[in-house]
Amino acid sequence: MNINEKCLLGYLKNPDELSYNTEILKINNKILEQKFIFRNILVNFPAINYTEKAKG
What we know:
Elements: H1 3-13, H2 18-40
Helix pairs in contact: 1-2
């Protein structure tokens, strides 16, 4: 069972906890977004060597 199913089941069992389940889904979405950014954007940047002196 994934997080969405757990939150839906939690809501169906106790509708008063809608805000709690909504917050869990928001946090989960934020984590997934950060993982996506890391895997698809940050990893593709070339490595920068900060130890070399600038030639000028």
